[in-house]
């Protein structure tokens, strides 16, 4: 099961900071943008609700603002606190509620293989840039949601309600059904495999 483990310091230069969270080792893909507006693919090596270590060819200056879009997590921003040989560390700028939500998301990520969450998806997950959307039920009810991850065959969404498993829904223009519940929301399997063009509004 999920447990936080302190990260080993790799920084070659740092800003002194008091870490209030322990990190857990993860492997999360995404992309990030530096203050220069240059974008780079990245991988999260370890993370806590308060800070994150990236492997990335892009190198910010210590103290530089960074914006990242991560699979399962969504948008994060913060300031670089240290550089390593293959990346950098960043302190996450967030409200207390956001930190609590990140803790829940990290728990979900670390334990998803035990919870039966969408590891069996037939297509690669994509990192949505536009995460805000809504789902519509057959009776006309609509609910705002946030896309946590997306593929050609399904999506995981962060939403306050939990439609029953098997419920038909529409996510944007894509029809599907609820196949799983998890801590942050629900997993949807689309009725048919989507084309990448159909997903362009989110990417």
From TrEMBL:
SUPFAM superfamilies named in the record: PilZ domain-like
Matches recorded under InterPro entries: PilZ_domain (IPR009875)
Segments crossing the lipid bilayer: none
Gene Ontology MF, one: cyclic-di-GMP binding
PilZ domain span: 120-202
Entry protein name: PilZ domain-containing protein
Signal peptide (UniProt feature, chain positions): none
Gene3D superfamilies associated with the record: predicted glycosyltransferase like domains
Stored Pfam families: PilZ
Superkingdom of origin: Bacteria
């Amino acid at each position: 099961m999920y447990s936080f483990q302190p990260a080993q310091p790799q920084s070659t230069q740092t800003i002194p900071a008091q870490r209030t969270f322990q990190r857990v080792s993860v492997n999360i893909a995404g992309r990030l943008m530096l203050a220069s507006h240059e974008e780079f693919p990245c991988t999260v090596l370890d993370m806590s609700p308060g800070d994150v270590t990236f492997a990335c060819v892009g190198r910010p200056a210590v103290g530089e603002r960074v914006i990242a879009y991560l699979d399962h997590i969504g948008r994060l921003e913060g300031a670089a606190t240290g550089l390593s040989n293959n990346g950098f560390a960043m302190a996450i700028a967030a409200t207390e509620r956001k930190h609590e939500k990140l803790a829940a998301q990290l728990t979900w990520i670390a334990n998803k293989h035990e919870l039966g969450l969408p590891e069996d998806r037939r297509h690669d997950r994509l990192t949505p840039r536009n995460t805000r959307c809504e789902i519509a039920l057959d009776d006309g009810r609509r609910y705002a949601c946030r896309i946590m991850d997306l593929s050609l065959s399904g999506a995981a969404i962060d939403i306050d309600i939990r439609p029953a498993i098997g419920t038909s829904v529409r996510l944007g223009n894509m029809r599907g059904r609820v196949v799983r519940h998890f801590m942050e929301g629900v997993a949807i399997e689309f009725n048919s495999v989507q084309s990448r063009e159909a997903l362009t509004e989110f990417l």
